[in-house]
Amino acid sequence: MSKITTELLLERAVPRSTRLRKIETLNLSKLQLRTGDLDPRLFSRLRHLQKLDLSDNLLDKFPNSLTLPDLRVLNCNNNKLEDVTALKQFPLLEELTYENNVYLTLNDDYKVMFLLENLRLLNGKDITKLANHVRRVNSRKLTSKVTAHWEKFFRDQLPEKHTAEQVKSIKKKFLKSVQTNVVYGPSSLSEFTRWRVKMIAEEFLSYSLGLEINSDTEPEEKTDENEEESTESPREDEEEVAQVVDIYDHLVTVKSSKRKRNHSKSGAGNKRSKSQANAEEEAEDVSAEPLHFLQCHSKGNSREDFKTQLWSCVFEPVLDSGARKDPIVSSSRTVATCGGESVCLIDCETGTVLKKYKVATEEFFSVAWTTLTMVISDSRKKAHNILAAAGRRGIVKLIHVAADFCYGEIKAHKKPIATICFSPTQETHLFTASYDKRIVLWDIGIPDCDYNFKASQLLVLEAVSIPLRIALVPTCPEQYLLAGCEGGCFAWNIKLDKGQKSRPFEAIFQFPDGESITTSHRVDGLAFLNDDVVVSKSSKPGCIYLWSWSRSFDAKGKECQRTVSAVILAELEWSTTDMSYLTLSTCPAKEYVFCGDEQGSVWMYNLSNHTTAWGSAKGKRSERRISPTQILKWPELRVNGEQPPEILVNNVVSDPAFTYLVVLTSVNITAIWKKS
User: Fold this and answer.
1) What is the CATH number of domain 6-209?
2) What Å distances lie between residue 398 and 335, 403, 409, CA to CA?
3) Which superfamily does CATH assign the domain made up of 288-318+332-675 to?
4) What is the distance between the alpha carbons of residues 146 and 261, in angstroms, rounded to a whole number?
5) By the 8 A CB rule, do 77 and 97 touch?
6) Phi and psi (nearest 5°) for 239?
């Protein structure tokens, strides 16, 4: 039986407490505790614990899932610790002591300095400058050496057309070779160097070359059902938010520009700098001006981070507004954005980062809102907005925004999640689309007043390639789902009264491809313009199609076949780039389509003059490509007097009333435009 009980924790709290969740300081020293005595389920209830003393015990390691989201000070003196890497689960840790653990060395000091980005004091010494050197200079040098080692010895060993066995073999040889041959720093740090080199090499293979590394140390979890309590807490970092407001204002100049952008591959930006000149627009239909430029997703809060990719944003629904009935009043001026290790909530009008949620080991790809009616005190019910966020780890985080609390997670997939979305009619139904070539429908449940909840898997949709974008059909969101995938555009029947819990696709759509038609193409943009018109973008240069869902799918019913031709209504003129994953969005209430390009510009299409004709039963395809109503050029933006090079627009989203336009880029800049 464990030595640690609820009663013991309450007794050892400083001061004594009556509830676990109220404990902020806890002294568990001199209790002869071993690792097995630290029960993760019991510790997970210490949601507000900030100071923990575990000195003078018999601990040889830390469990990987203690879940102390607010821990700031930890004392582990006089134990038998052999490894420190599990401490990365405490990302807010500021002070750490582990003196008189005979198995720990200087290499372990460097590991914790790298893993814990907020650490200021280690064994009583201020390590801020050294830690910054370890995280930045050391990492930069090692990354350069790892890359050079690949280029010199291994790049030519991997054939252009390679088999899975060849990939496996080259990965194994490279990881072994790079750890042996890449040397940097004193010999006393050789263990730390090998540890970092292996980590950097795995990231290099995975991100730069697309060679997946299965190096997760976490045990495999069942994916059909999850019941979790709190994991991490979102927080508003006051010092960091102050940086957003002040740090770059005197460094950045923003001017409107009509010049053509050069091609180059990097970027720079600012965190919050209001436009100092009015934007001169080339088209007259819409007038919009750049309002804010934010750099709020930086890794480790680094001012030099211009590499973090920003992927997804969605406006928060307004409570008590009949959000599901009237789209014009269904969102606020608050938008959730994600990229890198963080999710941010931004006030579009002021440019203020209201809240920020970080997971040091994650890279977030998608966010989605739902509104849950939850039971609060005295059995009263109240509606609250819940934000779901997911990404590379295949885990969905569930955040109660008003409470600043991540109350749980769903281990949805064993591979990265590309995108997520909630059902507009079933508030607890969440779809997750993953690199495992599956789209899963979850019921996330409704948390009780103690944030206990139970998530269950309702349906699995089998795809033949990786799903990139998903959209529920507006006229029947409980029956059909569309997905743009690496290998085409597909539709599934998602009706839950059918007995089959795992389903293949019901239809694949063919599109024009030069003189022929094809089903095999990457569809990296997908959205509904209205109840029937679908907008989809493929990796074919300059290709955005508008097509009729009902007329296309009805043809399938008549012919009883899975492959059907999309009934094309029009084609939009867009950039001729062959770059993928620059996605599109729509504003149905205003009948607009938005899509960014490879030069930082936003292409806007007002289609209100076309939709009536397309809605008729005999609506014919527009003969000419429809030109953009307006192209918003990226403003001339200078940081420290230097102009950043090419900026890719990964995503661009407007609020339902088209007051604000939020632009997410490849260089860690969120740009907010306002319609004037």
Assistant:
1) 3.80.10.10
2) 16, 12, 6
3) YVTN repeat-like/Quinoprotein amine dehydrogenase (2.130.10.10)
4) 32
5) yes
6) -65, -40
Q: Is 42 helix (H, G, I), strand (E, B) or coil?
A: helix
Cα–Cα distances (Å) from 414 to 137, 246, 340, 635, in that order, read 33, 41, 19, 41
Q: Which tens digit of pLDDT belongs to each residue from 542-586?
A: 789 999 999 998 876 655 678 999 999 999 999 998 888 999 999
Please answer whether residues 279 and 291 qualify as being in contact, where contact means their C-beta atoms are separated by less than 8 angstroms. Answer: no
Residue holding tokens 């989605």?
A: 368
What DSSP assignment string belongs to 66-116? ---TT--EEE--SS-----GGGGG-TT--EEE-TT-TT--HHHHHHHHHH-
For residue 662, give the amino acid letter: V
pLDDT digits 0-9 by tens, 133-183: 888 888 888 988 998 998 888 888 877 777 888 888 888 898 999 898 888
Contact 591, 530 (CB under 8 A): yes
3-state secondary structure 552-619: HHHHHHHHCCCEEECEEEEEECCCCCCCCCCCEEEEHHHCEEEEECCCCCEEEEECCCCHHHHHCCCC
Half-sphere exposure of 184 (CA within 13 A, CB side): 20
List the domain boundaries for the chain: 6-209, 288-318+332-675
- Name the nearest CA neighbour of 235 among 407, 24, 406, 409: 406
